[in-house]
């Protein structure tokens, strides 16, 4: 968020940002009419989605609500900006369904950015494939934010019921056969868990309103490569006998000593400070006769 980024804010700027909560630019019902989208009741009958989700109950501080709105808007925009009104509402509903299911984080940003610390394995592809580097269009973002605001205000998109998964028609993920297909909207196919895990009684998570930062999770640390290249030392190469890590001994410098007037290089210590780390007198040693 702008007020959470160093260098782009000032103390107390969050109060100015949150003083006027965002308002929907587009009316959801008007968009449905304009697109000629099937109304939710008919679409629900067509899909046979079964039980529908409970209306989302907003909670938390103003900052938590702002983060929730941004994360849900990003999911709608980057996953479904080119989809119909129903397609965008369906994506928003999947995110909220996951928040309510104990198999997933209980925050909106936690659900959206789950697995984003990995190059592969993120739950929503846009969080780890570089899509966030693409600036949203103003009109597209306004529409996505309007959908997100409606969902966070209690609007339930009934046609997909309790769906927690979706994918595009262009792929066939390994998990698709293990779930119950609900139906397709635009480019996406929607699924729910099989058995009890997909029934309303399983959606027991209560939203507490504590939202993490609206950012991808930090990348996991990568192990050092086996060989760092010419002129460097592998600090963690295994010993042939034990496989234990060995720490490389520092190499003696092969450079000729420089004269007193030679410029200092990176890592050098000025002559007057070279003994600064030595004891003046070792602890317990006898005092010199002159003291």
From TrEMBL:
Q: Does the keyword Methyltransferase apply?
A: no
User: Does Zinc show up as a keyword for this record?
Assistant: no
According to the lineage, what is the superkingdom?
Bacteria
Q: Name one Pfam family in it.
A: Hydrolase_2
> What keywords tag this UniProt record?
Hydrolase
Q: Which InterPro entries match?
A: Cell_wall_hydrolase_SleB (IPR011105), SleB_dom1 (IPR042047)
| Residues covered by the Cell wall hydrolase SleB domain | 82-191
- In this chain, composition skew of type Basic and acidic residues spans 269-281
Task: Mention one GO molecular function.
Answer: hydrolase activity
Region annotated Disordered sits at 214-291
The protein in question is named Cell wall hydrolase
Q: From what organism does this protein derive?
A: Qipengyuania gaetbuli
